[in-house]
Amino acid sequence: MKKINIVGTSGSGKSTVGQRLATKLNIPFIEMDALYWKPNWQEPSDEEFFAHLATALQQDRWVLDGNYNRTVAIKWADVDTVIWIDYSFARTLFQAVRRAIVRSLGQKEIWANTGNKESLRKTFFSKDSIILWTLKTYKKNRTRYQALLDDPNYSHIQFVRLTSPAKVDAFINQMSVD
After folding, report:
1. SS3 (DSSP) at 171
2. C-beta of residue 117 within 8 angstroms of C-beta of residue 107
3. CATH of 3-88+139-173, one of 3.40.50.360, 3.40.50.1820, 3.20.20.100, 3.40.50.300
4. Does the keyword Isomerase apply (predicted)?
5. pLDDT over threshold 70, residue 52
6. How does strand 3-7 pair with strand 29-31?
7. Alpha carbon distance 56, 35 (integer Å)
8. 57-75, pLDDT tens digit by residue?
9. What is the pTM of this model?
10. How does 120-141 read in b/e, with b if 16+ C-beta sit within 10 Å?
């Protein structure tokens, strides 16, 4: 495994798993949200975002976390492994809520040089709520990733589906640096 994409619904733990795996394999970790979000929660054009992503993926080895379905052609062009964090709905929702509360109360900048911080108002009382996003996308993401797993166009990719934190731990613990 040299080029790995971690996917899963918001709140599933993609970044945490990605950072752990990158550390274990001693390869760069790339967070798609950090490439995407601009200061003050501004969104880039697709052209700008795709260019940032393509540049970041020019390395020989990496662990990339993130879905962004419209980037599949870019991020899966050279990927050899896709790890799907597919926890139960209850577990994923719990993690999303916990993360949102911790971020809101901590008021730490999420991505360097953006000034972007979570707030309780945005988390619980906004149409842009990450919790609402998790609720809306959980089932759709599971359906989509199962279809991609079965799609012969991606038969060259090793798909790994991890359904619990214990399975994530076992998977990462059995990894070795090449």
Report:
1. helix
2. yes
3. 3.40.50.300
4. no
5. yes
6. unpaired
7. 9
8. 999 999 999 999 999 999 9
9. 0.92
10. eebbeeeeebbbbebbeebeeb
